[in-house]
Design brief:
Elements (H helix, E strand, L loop, with lengths): L17 H6 L4 H9 L2 H11 L11 H6 L10 E6 L8 H8 L1 H15 L3 E6 L4 H16 L15 E6 L9 H8 L23 E5 H5 L1 H7 L1 H4 L3 E2 L2 E2 L1 E8 L5 E6 L4 H6 L13 E5 L8 E2 H4 L12 H5 L2 H4 L7 E6 L4 H15 L5 H18 L5 H14 L7 H25 L1 H11 L7
Parallel strand pairs: 1-2, 1-4, 2-3, 7-11
Antiparallel strand pairs: 5-6, 7-8, 9-10, 9-11
Helix pairs in contact: 2-6, 2-10, 3-6, 5-6, 6-10, 16-17, 16-19, 17-18, 17-19, 18-19, 19-20
The structure holds flavin mononucleotide.
Flavin mononucleotide binds next to strand 4 and helix 19.
Length: about 450
Amino acid sequence: MERKILLKNVDVPGIRTFEVYRSTGGYDSVEKALKKMTPDEVVEEVKMSGLRGRGGAGFPAGMKWSFIDKKSGNPRYLICNADESEPGTFKDRYLMEKLPHLLIEGMICSCYALGANTGYIYVRGEYKYIIGILNQAILEAYEKGFLGKNILGTAFNLDIHVHSGAGAYICGEETAQIESLEGKRGNPRIKPPFPAVVGLYGCPTVVNNVETLANIGFIVNNGGGEYAKYGVGKSTGTKLISACGNINNPGVYEIELGLSVREFLYDPKYCGGVKNGKELKAVIAGGSSVPILPASLILKTAAGEERLMTYESLADGGFVSGTMLGSGGFIVYDEDACIVRNTWNLARFYHHESCGQCSPCREGTGWMESVLHRIENGHGRTKDIDLLVSIASKIEGNTICPLGDAAAWPIASAIRHFRHEFEEHVLHPEKCINSTIRQFDDVTIS
Ligand SMILES: Cc1cc2nc3c(=O)[nH]c(=O)nc-3n(C[C@H](O)[C@H](O)[C@H](O)COP(=O)(O)O)c2cc1C
């Protein structure tokens, strides 16, 4: 039996409106938290739930909340990170589009727990149409007394504002996002100090992903212990996975953590198998920033264990034979996919999106893109392959923010698992370029 927390009511007609959402038990958690619980009790329940941040890093949400500086006397802020620019990831968009009140309900409980009277939703610039949906839901929440002054007759006040990004991937990184909200260029800050101590306008701030915050209503209503009954081990709860690429059923799925990768990939309820009956070549399991794994390692670990959709199982084998759950962007490649071209494409993305603040990332992403472009276009040299590995190793761990790692890992892992394809491109460029053109004949190579 499939158990759902977030998308349980997604198909209820009119669920986007306050009335319908409220009739399904929506906003009950706000009544409970504000009238029956102290802020610290809400934090405790979130800790007990084991909920981990759904933005990619998987940091425990309750622990992050407990770091918020309550002694400074400064205002505290909650920022909902709705930037979602990671290639292959489109689950927050689905959540906000279909269930905007679920996010607002979660934000109200979270702000109450943190002692924040102002919350921001930082929305990816390209999701323009979602801003209207969110603003409408916020307006309804104000009208019904769930936002504004003296919410539900209590002493708690809260305003939520929607802020549009301007199309920069780096503004998804929490400190760059804070800079951007302050009206500055989105350059990541050096940590520490962490946002929980010095965040927005120099005040204590928590930044959480949309999906993370959307889980809070359930935790408040049912208790952290109940939430922890979903999932396995330290991967509690459910996870939204956006599945795309060469599969029969691309889309957004809510899975209980612990489902096997095999079931997720082949069951008609989820991806429904590789399209056109082709063989599976590779999967990027957690958004473009995580290492790619070949078919042989995504279904089973190197030790032969069934690979599960959990933080731990996907990471089994470290970066030698494992990967990460990341943001849950599940990208599938069939036997005809060109790994070199795909890697070049990702390198172009990271080069374009590097903020340029750190030399290894600014320069390194550019060099990786150029070398991959050369290989992909039939002018590669055998030594280029090790050159790429070397550049990636010099970026990783040497930048202010993890964009550098995110740029290095896809390239290093593609070469680790598919070196033969890179060699083939160097040794037999005519063969590879032809196959590339056949495969992508709608793409112009500049
Ligand atoms: C380059 C880069 C882009 C990121 N983009 C996002 C994003 O779009 N959404 C998101 O929630 N987290 C993103 N993150 C992670 C955030 O920095 C942060 O860890 C997250 O918002 C914390 O929320 P969580 O604990 O609920 O996951 C990004 C990180 C990096 C380095």
